[in-house]
Design goal:
The chain is mainly alpha-helical. The chain is built from 14 helices and 4 strands.
């Protein structure tokens, strides 16, 4: 049985990699046709799409009576996205990870607010309906906020933006001209939706395989949500980030990771919390919140110079190993 689930895991991973690559490709093309900056493509298209597995698994876990499942899954996923998503995007590519978007000034403050809200909400060990409403409102505010800062940046640096846009599109001039002539945007959207569906389905089977393998090996369910399930549902974000990094599109990498994290915290907690009260143990709360805050601070410090080095990437990986070790009481 272990061998069967191992095969399912490997096949699902391969399908996930390919579908994430296609999804990234079509998302970038659609964003360029609509003349959207790479960061906004990541926040509004890629991030939300790749967060669907987390939402689906969280709903499934809570529906089975596991009230603590969601917190482990969501917060574990956010930690994985930061520590593995960003680090692997840098480590697995030869290109230098440099960002043009001012994430420190524009988006990290809002992400800090999301972390603060979730920490305060879970401090008493439960998440109520009223808190769920606040979280959903918080995400609406974030979307408006992201749009406004993009609009302001575009107005303040219009000439620079147009030069960058022309540079980005130059290599795909013939493609975009064909799109305009034949209105191929109608063809891109179906491919985008199909690839997104495959991402969601394949990630589901990855999670199923990981869960069964963990059960066979005798791992506890309370830790699985924060490790195996969180890692499984984070694979779309990780593969999309790596795929975008290999193309040299690091703004999309950041938009994917940050957008997904904010979506996970606000929307998943908010949507599920409307229908049921969520809980978390004191021990799990301390570990998750401590590493969440630590990961955020480390990310903030490394992004000040708008770049992420391979040495910093390996430090992120080391911190994730420490996170898993603490959950399993290895050290």
């Amino acid at each position: 049985m272990l061998a069967i689930w191992a095969v399912i895991f490997v096949i699902s991973i391969w399908v996930l990699v390919k579908s994430a690559d296609y999804f990234t490709d079509y998302s970038e093309k659609l964003g360029k046709i609509l003349k959207l900056p790479n960061f906004i493509v990541g926040v509004l298209i890629v991030a939300i799409g790749t967060s669907l597995p987390e939402l689906a698994t969280s709903v499934a876990g809570v529906s089975k009576g596991e009230a603590e499942f969601l917190s482990g899954n969501v917060l574990g996923t956010v930690i994985v996205n930061i520590l593995l998503g960003l680090s692997l995007a840098v480590v697995l590519t030869k290109k230098k990870a440099r960002f043009s978007w001012d994430i420190v000034s524009n988006d990290l403050p809002f992400f800090a607010g999301a972390i603060f809200l979730v920490a305060i909400s879970l401090m008493d060990g439960r998440f109520t309906t009223m808190e769920a409403v606040i979280f959903l409102i918080g995400y609406i505010i974030y979307v408006i906020y992201a749009y406004n800062i993009q609009k302001t940046a575009k107005e303040n640096e219009k000439e620079k933006y147009q030069k960058e846009l022309k540079s980005e599109i130059k290599s795909e001039t013939e493609y975009i001209e064909t799109v305009k002539k034949k209105k191929d945007i109608k063809k891109i959207i179906p491919f985008l939706l199909v690839s997104l569906l495959v991402v969601a389905v394949s990630s589901h089977y990855v999670v199923e395989a990981v869960i069964h393998i963990a059960d066979i090996l005798g791992l506890g369910t309370s830790i699985m949500a924060a490790t195996a399930v969180a890692l499984g549902t984070s694979l779309p974000e990780i593969f999309v980030a790596v795929s975008a990094a290999r193309r040299g599109n690091f703004d999309l990498v950041i938009g994917d990771i940050i957008g997904s994290n904010i979506f996970d915290i606000f929307v998943i907690y908010g949507a599920v919390g409307l229908f049921t009260e969520l809980t978390i143990t004191r021990e799990l709360f301390i570990i998750l919140i401590s590493f969440l805050i630590g990961s955020f601070v480390l990310m903030w410090l490394t992004f000040i110079d708008k770049k992420l080095t391979k040495a910093e990437g390996w430090m992120f990986v080391l911190l994730y190993i420490m996170f898993v070790g603490k959950l399993f009481n290895i050290f």
